[in-house]
Amino acid sequence: MAGLYLHIPFCKSKCVYCGFYSTVNQKDIDKYISTLSEELTLRESEVTESVKTAYFGGGTPSLLQPSQLHQILDNLHDRFKIAPDAEMTIEANPEQLTPEYCKALKALGFNRLSIGVQSFHDDILRFLGRRHTAQEALDAIKNAHDAGFDNISIDLIYGVNERSNKQWCNELEKAFSIPIRHFSAYALTVEENSLLYRRIHQHKTVEPDEDLAARQYDILQEAAVRSPFMQYEVSNYAVKGWESKHNSAYWQRVPYLGFGPAAHSFDGTHRYWNAPTLATYFAQIAEKKTFYGHETLSKTDHYNEYLLLRLRTRSGIDLREMAQLFGQKRTDTLLRHFQTKVNPRHYEYTPGRLHLTAEGLWFADGIAGDCFLEH
Ligand code: SF4
């Protein structure tokens, strides 16, 4: 069991690029906490072994008071066997990370903090619809560090038209000078259900420039080489030994359970998903249903997912493992495809392992897609 994901679906306001499910209506927080507790109880028999990671994501988990988080954590410990050294992550927005709040999170048992910084420039933060300033982001990281968090990650967004390459370089220098061990950097994309999507279609703003995003990805690679951070997945960078255990397990396709609206679960053979909104989730749990929809993965689905997730990681595909899972013939076919169709600058093949280079990772989804099996 990889771990547990708990979705906290509340936000103060919607950021322009966001496609995650969350609501700005906070009146149901208490009802949500008790419904979540019912879901944890309903599903406690789904995990018998000890849990290695728990991840509070959102939404904005840091909107919850320490007493509310305490309630959820108590339930979690009552229902599941959480390993004493489990990675316990909570996502937080900078404006909530006061010294007192950071100390409370530490006292509750969280040992990893993922902070939604996105940028160290106020203009960019305003464009993205974030509620914090650059200074608040820096203060938040300091407060977390002072409270004893040594495992801090931040999120950054690049490929924003309003930001020059020079500004992006400066932001990276800033990120490398603060006490973090991990960062995730995402190119700005236009999610269909986001405000950005609507604004583009109303001609109020323009699409993000793909060439700019590609150039800023290159700048990131050049800067990362001079930093203590190593890229271990398309969008994730860590000081060696500080990679996210929770996300790494997803990419290894280890089973996990997801709780709350719009959360997904995977048991190695099936994917399950919860009701997509708070209202439908309340109804789902009131009817004591442990999932809202599910699918059984076919052999082809397994193969395609395996390929996609592994090729997005820097360690890539262990060819011996692949042969065991999908057969030697399929493995040889994949190797032949790479040797004849894929740009040699985009991958490396060492006996027993096939992985994409930093340059190739930018094209990971396309390279994997070209190798997919048809249903
Ligand atoms: S990006 Fe995070 S804080 Fe912003 S709306 Fe989405 S979930 Fe909420």
Protein described:
It contains 15 helices and 15 strands. The chain is α/β, with parallel strands linked by helices. The protein folds into two domains: 249 residues, Aldolase class I (TIM Barrel), CATH 3.20.20.70; 73 residues. The longest helix has 16 residues. Bound molecules: iron/sulfur cluster. Iron/sulfur cluster binds next to loops.
- How many domains make up the coordinates? 2
Secondary-structure-derived class: alpha/beta
What would CATH call the homologous superfamily of the largest domain?
Answer: Aldolase class I
Q: What fraction, in percent, of the residue positions are helical?
A: 40-55%
Rg of Cα set: 21 Å
Strand numbers in spatial order across the main sheet: 7-8-6-5-4-3-2-1-9
Give the distinct bound molecules: iron/sulfur cluster
Number of strands: 15
How would a textbook summarize the main sheet?
Answer: 9 strands, mixed
**Gap between N and C termini, in Å?**
28 Å
CATH topology of the largest domain: TIM Barrel
Number of helices: 15
Order of helices and strands, N to C? Answer: EHEHEHEHHEHEHHEEHEEEHEHEHHEEHH
Strand content: 15-25%
- Kindly report the average pLDDT value: 96
| Uncertain stretches | none
By CATH reckoning, the class of the largest domain would read Alpha Beta
How does CATH name the architecture of the largest domain? Answer: Alpha-Beta Barrel
Shape category: globular
